Amino acid sequence: MNSALKTQLRQRLRERRRLISPSQQHLAAQQLMLRIIKLSAYRRAGHIAAYMASDGEISPEYLLRHASLQRKTCYLPRIDVTKPSRKRMGFQRYHPRQALRANRYGIGEPAGLRHCARAPKHLDIVLVPLAGFDKEGKRLGMGGGFYDRCFAFKKHRPQQKPLLIGIAHHCQEVSALPVDEWDIGLDMIITDRAVIHPRRGRGKS
Question: Quick check: is 203 in a domain?
Answer without folding.
Answer: no
